[in-house]
Write a structure and sequence with these properties.
The chain is of the alpha+beta class. It has three helices and three strands, in the order E-E-H-H-H-E. Strands 1-2-3 form a three-stranded antiparallel sheet, with no helix packed on it. Strand 1 and strand 2 form a beta hairpin. Helix 1 crosses helix 3. It is globular. The mean pLDDT is 79.
């Protein structure tokens, strides 16, 4: 199920035809912020308002602190 990874490839826990799920990665926070601010996703997920990179970083750090050394939340990545 899991594929080998290198330092530049993300960990994928679950892979579908259009979605891949894995742990949050600090280096991808700008991408997560862009996804969170997509108007269609904001409506579907009821985010309510746009987020800044600083807010996304704070959210990541809170999740990482709760999980120890890695963030426990997962995020779907469109392929």
């Amino acid at each position: 199920m899991n594929e080998p990874t290198t330092p530049t490839t993300p960990i994928i826990n679950i892979r579908g035809e259009q979605v891949a799920l894995g742990p949050l990665v600090r280096e991808l926070l700008p991408l997560y912020t862009r996804w969170r601010n997509d108007l269609d996703r904001m409506r579907q997920l009821d985010y309510g308002r746009p987020w800044t990179l600083e807010q996304e970083t704070e959210r990541y750090e809170e999740l990482a602190a709760d999980a120890g050394d890695c963030a426990s939340d997962t995020l779907g990545a469109m392929e």
